[in-house]
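Hi support team,

I'm opening this ticket because the web form for multi-chain structure prediction keeps timing out on my end. I have pasted the exact lines I submitted so you can reproduce it. The total is 666 residues across two entries, so I didn't expect it to be a heavy job. Is there a limit I'm missing, or should I split the entries? Thanks in advance, R.K.
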Amino acid sequence: MKKLINSPERVIDDALVGMARAHPDLLVVHTNPHMIVRADAPMRGKVGVVSGGGSGHEPMHGGFVGKGMLSAACPGAVFTSPVPDQMLAATKAVDGGAGVLYIVKNYTGDVMNFEMAAELAAAEGIEVASILTNDDVAVQDSLYTAGRRGVGVTVLLEKIVGAAAEAGATLAECQRLGEKVNAQGRSMGMALTSCTVPQAGGPTFDLGEDEMEIGIGIHGEPGRIRMPLASAAEVVELLAMPILTDLPFAAGDSVLAFVNGMGGTPLIELYIVYNELTRILKDKQITIARNLVGNYITSLEMAGCSITLLKLDDELTRFWDAPVHTPALRWGM
Amino acid sequence: MKKLINSPERVIDDALVGMARAHPDLLVVHTNPHMIVRADAPMRGKVGVVSGGGSGHEPMHGGFVGKGMLSAACPGAVFTSPVPDQMLAATKAVDGGAGVLYIVKNYTGDVMNFEMAAELAAAEGIEVASILTNDDVAVQDSLYTAGRRGVGVTVLLEKIVGAAAEAGATLAECQRLGEKVNAQGRSMGMALTSCTVPQAGGPTFDLGEDEMEIGIGIHGEPGRIRMPLASAAEVVELLAMPILTDLPFAAGDSVLAFVNGMGGTPLIELYIVYNELTRILKDKQITIARNLVGNYITSLEMAGCSITLLKLDDELTRFWDAPVHTPALRWGM
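Hello R.K., no limit was hit. The queue was backed up. Here is the completed structure from your submission:
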């Protein structure tokens, strides 16, 4: 295992402290329990927006804590759900009196623990609502999931709902908006290589030198098909078509096209993937009104990519465009 | 070779077109000869700032084209210098009447070709000045270099000089500023793994399963020492000490600390490296006034990192903080 770490046990603590030291203007890090909180939390009279999940997907979620996006993030161990205590502590830290919204990716542990945290928060008099993301069209049910997995849409949803909360939307409005984003977004991913969880010490799965896996999960969960390597054009076709037919997206639609790297794929390749995606969407008479290309929801050093399409309307576009200042996403300030 | 490409021959063209389609508001891409130019070039009365070099280091340089940074970038084939024709075409495209500054990393091919381009531009009546970056303290002379290699400081220099050009500084002022940045910055890198140039098809060098290379170049050029894997704390010590003693940096100095990923290293590890760096600098009574953590000057999918320290003063800090809007660096707009 080749990693720039001090020991597998210290990965999360060391990284969180490093993150806090790099971004003291934006966030505060607590290591017991682990949470990353906006430096100016709680925002009086505004909805707090909390997400979390296993670590190893950086910059998601901690890199999205800041102005106009998340109020707090709860990082679990690598690929392991955070626990209700973390979520409750984060909830209290960001509660500004207008309630707290949880953004939960659909993995069994995350769902269960955020539900428990919501009950604990309610018992302390904090109003909590939740949004579940389940945008991965690759498979129904999976290694850690009943139903579909939550993946790339989570990033877009955190930006859009975070902007609404920043603008003073109510808890109910934030929840409705988040449900709309999840309903209008679809994703699918693929892997060229596996990745290694520090505490496991070896690859999460094996993939032959001439193989790739289409429909992979962000924890290396099995996808739809393992097949011989193909060209970028073929790979994008294999990812985009199931996404397009699932919603379905149709001629005349306007979308945000998000090409995400899994962590170990050079940016140059992500632009090649984006280029292929533009060809397919043009052919379908779908307009790309906004785009995002880069490493935002990763699987450690896995080589591969995912594609997310989000159907835009004026409301989603306005909140997407709103100023944001976090370690990983920043514009307008 | 596992890459998301269509063919080794098409990598640069496909990626450049994808980049143009992702950022039409910022840049225009030409494929014959290859260049990435600010959408609003030439800026009348302002110095044009041009850089370039082999591809495979993305986002450098093309991802730094935009408002407040580069006016144009000339990408060569992967790890191969661009040619004078590209540089001349870029020079003409960005010449706004105030001259054009070349930012050149110290590699023999880049130096020679930018010199030739400067002569061609002069023959066409365009005033050109050049800055050479040679901040890598690892080795004197190298596989493609006489003297020291230009690495991480190049990113910081492009931001700082780009801000000065945007603010209306003269060609001579931009050149003086660039020389100051290069003089006040030092870098060193390391690799855990090699990388594969698409047209080569196999790893650039071999590194054992239990080995790392300290002082590596961004094209996989040999470093100072190949040694057994060590902890992040030890690795950072091995990189930071030669940097600190070379300038030298001293107690009371204020620096920009830049932890750069080589492409295949997860962000979580870069924050661990940053954390170790903060410990060392604190111990030396050096203040980190600004920082940058992420993948900015990469070597395809190489796992590893580099550290760059730049001694700051009010002038450099002001231009670093100035608004920038490029695909890879953005703030204040």
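A quick check on our side: The first strand of chain B starts at residue 27 and ends at 31. Let us know if the file doesn't open in your viewer.
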